[in-house]
Amino acid sequence: MARAATTADAFNAVAEPRRRQILDALAGGERPVNDLVALLGLAQPQVSKHLRVLREVGAVDVRDEGRQRLYRLNGHALKPIHDWVSNYERFWSERFDQLDVVLEDLKRKEQGDDGNDE
Amino acid sequence: MTSSASATVTLPTDEQILITREFDAPKHLVYKAWTTPELVKRWWSGHRGEMTIAEIDLRVGGTWRYVMVAKGGFEVAFHGEYSEIVPNERIVTTEVYEGMPEGEVPEAQAPLNIVTFTEADGRTTLTLLVQTTSKELRDVIINSGMEVGMQEQMDRLEQIAISLR
Q1: Helix or strand or coil: residue B163?
Q2: Which of these, B116, B117, B149, B124, lies nearest to B24 by C-alpha position?
Q3: Nearest CB to A89: which of B7, B139, B142?
Q4: Helix, strand or coil, per DSSP, at residue B16
Q5: Do B8 and A89 touch (CB under 8 A)?
Q6: What distance in Å separates the CA atoms of residue A112 and residue B90, rounded to the nearest whole number?
Q7: First and final CA of chain A: distance in angstroms?
Q8: Cβ pair A8:B43 closer than 8 A
Q9: Partners of residue B8 in chain A, C-beta under 8 Å
Q10: pLDDT digits (tens, 9 = 90+) for A68-96
Q11: Fold of domain A1-111
Q12: Reported ipTM
């Protein structure tokens, strides 16, 4: 139960488009807040709010270096989401690969000798 | 084998799941493969089993029901009702999973599947937007997805085990 709740929380935190932008930016490496502010074109308080949500679910870690606060991805917390999306994606890819085969048949029938079939 | 593209899955909002895929075929054929029972039977189960039932009453207010027997021998069944149909363009339907451990979701709260077919240069982009009625429901779908994934991994493990004999 506790595990499911964690998963859901991380999902909810990550589902927000701005927060996903932040995660994308951090995928390239550790960054100071100012970088993220510039990148997203949002006001600093908004960016900080998003970062707080991400920190609460453990999606990002923070450390101070001199006067800078540096944020980085915490891949471990994101793993349940990554795993699920990959599973789901794989399932649909399987279906669609089969659908490709059906479509090839339909295309052949349509282009070819229509008189023969049916 | 022409591998058109892989499916991409994104989570646009807390209540949504979006699946996108491009096909190397015009949209009227993709639509046909999506809505014709004997064709659906050929692709819907992926590599995970055999589809035993594909019933489609393609009209607003009409219902559909898909049943597949997975490789482990258990049945997986879904049904729903069409609320919008624009031939070759768009289909809106509810989707109810019949095996929900917590019992079925009431029809009024069932997730909506919104499918669109867009053609450009003879190729079709299909989008399937799963619009749930709450974050909680989306998370349930997410978790059942993980279970299916687990099952799949078990199957694969079994295959590997057999191949090692």
Answers
A1: helix
A2: B124
A3: B7
A4: strand
A5: yes
A6: 28
A7: 55
A8: no
A9: 89
A10: 899 998 877 777 676 777 777 888 888 99
A11: Arc Repressor Mutant, subunit A (1.10.10)
A12: 0.78
